[in-house]
Sequence to fold (69 residues):
Amino acid sequence: MRESPLYQEIMQQGKLELIIRQLQRRFGHIEPILQSKIQQLSSYPLEELGEALLDFSSKQDLVTWLQNY
Fold:
């Protein structure tokens, strides 16, 4: 079951929603273009972003991270 495409899609969506909520809580409104770039990340980079955002001190850190990934 864990390897089924549906399961993977549900897990990916959950990760995405959590990361967006964390970023919004930390920095306020996240522009649609940034949200779009985050939504395009596959599972592993999304997990990396989830860890990296703990070290972000500004929204610019997010922008820089997305440009470098």
